Known about the structure:
Layout: H1 3-10, H2 15-25, E1 31-35, E2 48-49, E3 59-60, E4 64-67, E5 81-84, E6 98-101, E7 113-116, E8 120-123, E9 126-129, E10 139-140, E11 151-153, H3 161-169, E12 174-178, E13 182-188, E14 192-193, E15 204-205, H4 208-218, E16 222-229, H5 233-246
Parallel strand pairs: 13-16, 14-15
Antiparallel strand pairs: 1-12, 2-11, 3-10, 4-6, 4-7, 5-9, 8-9
Amino acid sequence: MSDSIQRKFLQRVPLARARELILSLARRTEPETVNVESSLHRVTAEPVHARFASPHYRASAMDGIAVRSADTTTASSETPLSLPDVGTVTPDAGIAACTAVDTGNPLPDWVDAVIRIEDTVHSDGVYRIAAPVSAGRDVRRIGEDAEAGALLVGVGHRVRPYDIGAMLATGIDRVSVRTPPRVAVLATGSEIVEPGGTPGPGQVIEFNSRMLAGCVAEWGGLAFYAGRVADERTALEKAIRSAVSTHDVV
Length: 250
């Protein structure tokens, strides 16, 4: 190799400049709509907003009893308060009562707090408590996780497992994402041997293309092995032109 060619080959491009050059050639791929369940690691093409609130009803955050907090103010360890379980019946104002609930159950309008089951003593349909409870305790309000219309993910966001859960929980089952870039990976060199072969003197197993294909997949692209090309200018030009015609990146 002549000195002039070698100097040109070894000329370094600073990382910032290389990134600038690559980004100047980059373009957005087309959007497509996919099922949310299939959107993991895809990049959003549009913002996603909650279709409805999560939770969309007042819910119990614990197993226990739902009560009116104002009815529990006199409860203490010295004078426990007995609360009959009225089920689905709404008790009159001033009558201390409760209704048993499990985690996630909707709460009736007349209650404003939940007492955990471990803080009660139950016998014959009556629950005894030894301390008052404040309004809102262990109650999941409407929209506690996400309000209706709330922004869940923005444009250009790489979808995570948590995002899938948030979208499904708020009524979103389809999402607009960018199509993955198609990346052709060419292996070059007259000295390389395909994996599984036995290299002779001066030969090496070709592994870089497989490694790069794995990186492409990890970064969200679709990698395609475009074959092995010898160190011959015409063959290289032909292989590159062919790959460019059908792929976004080579």
